[in-house]
TrEMBL record:
Residues 24-260 form the Serine aminopeptidase S33 domain. It holds the Pfam family Hydrolase_4. This is Carboxylesterase. One of its GO terms (molecular function) is carboxylic ester hydrolase activity. Transmembrane segments: none annotated. PANTHER family: PHOSPHOLIPASE-RELATED (PTHR11614). SUPFAM superfamilies: alpha/beta-Hydrolases.
Length: 289
């Protein structure tokens, strides 16, 4: 971990923070190979509801595959831990919310830090077993875990397949046109070594889940193209505190940027105790338990 948490030029350029009016803050954690920019839609929605928000760049992210492979899930958690401490210094309550690996990191932080007021997890992924994933991958990946950390195998990488976790046609065509380079600092390939760290983090959540006694919101798309809703159901059974699990009906894996992103923001704000806003539009979106 040495040196990985030292602020880099990428971290300074890509991380962001907005000051709110409630005295409450939300730490927003991007996904594996992602970057803080993917959290901006959610950040703006939460900020409009009064929350301060901070979206740090996770250690090893924001530059290239080599830097990512030099980090592990504990380094990523260290980034979340530092950002949480900074928010805690000037806010009465601090919550965590994250997509996929970011959500798991938020839970890992909540397990070790009782001061985390609550957590929201979007599109939890134990396995890539959604409808757009090759069937053999879900079965083979757990068997490959003992070998995925080997130097040669770690560098093997996979391109994220179309539709890139997006049901919104405009967004996914933009991703296709730019070969995934829409979010500054995000990578368009996933190294096997990083996948290995994702699985190690998921195993950690299974071990410490009972220590997460804070309220947890789990949001997942019914038609998630990357991770089946059974991933969310499994997570709900692991956690030690009250769980609110909801399935969304008009988006894919990237629920925080897809067609129901405003709904995701509003459900999260409500769950974290934001006062209701008169006339807040929610037409055209729905969710159910």
């Amino acid at each position: 971990m040495s040196g990985l948490l030292t602020p880099t030029a990428a971290a300074r350029a890509l991380s962001f923070r907005l000051k709110g009016s409630l005295g409450k803050a939300v730490l927003l954690l991007h996904g594996m190979t992602g970057a803080p920019g993917e959290m901006k839609f959610l950040a703006k929605r939460l900020h409009r509801r009064g929350f301060s928000v901070a979206a740090p760049l996770l250690a090893g992210h924001g530059t290239d595959e080599k830097a990512l492979l030099a980090s592990d899930w504990r380094d990523w958690l260290g980034s979340a831990r530092e950002a949480f401490a900074a928010l805690q210094a000037d806010h009465d309550e601090v919550y965590v919310a994250g997509i996929c690996v970011g959500g798991a990191l938020g839970l890992a932080l909540a397990a070790e830090e009782p001061a985390v007021a609550g957590a929201a997890v979007y599109s939890m992924t134990y396995r890539y077993d959604g409808w757009n994933m090759r069937r053999w991958y879900s079965a083979v990946t757990p068997l490959a875990k003992p070998f995925a950390g080997l130097p040669l195998l770690r560098r093997i990488s996979f391109v994220e397949p179309y539709p890139f976790g997006l049901k919104d046609e405009r967004l996914r065509e933009g991703m296709a046109a730019t070969q995934g380079a829409v979010i500054p600092g995000a990578l368009d390939r996933v190294p096997l070594g990083a996948m290995h760290e994702m699985h190690r983090l998921a195993d950690h959540i299974d071990r410490v889940g009972r220590d997460v006694t804070q309220p947890a919101l789990i949001l997942h798309a019914r038609d998630d193209d990357m991770s089946h809703p059974r991933n969310a159901e499994r997570l709900g059974k692991v956690l030690g505190g009250p769980v609110d699990l909801r399935l969304l009906d008009d988006c894919y894996h990237m629920i925080h940027v897809d067609k129901q992103r405003d709904l995701v923001g509003d459900i999260t704000a409500d769950f974290f105790g934001a006062p209701p806003r008169a006339g807040e539009a929610r037409a055209g979106a729905s969710a159910d338990a």
